[in-house]
Amino acid sequence: MACAISSRDDYFIVSQGGLASEAFSIAKVDRPDILILDPADNEYAFDTISKIAQLPSNPKVVVLSAHKNIEYVMRALDEGAAGYLTYASTSGEFLECIQTVLDGDTFVSPCIAAKLIASLRTAALRKAAAKKLRLTLREEQIVALLRKGKTNREIAGELNLSEKTVKHYMTVLMQKLAARSRLEVVLALKDFDTATSVPASRMFN
Question: Could you tell me the fold of the domain covering 133-202?
Answer without folding.
Answer: Arc Repressor Mutant, subunit A (1.10.10)
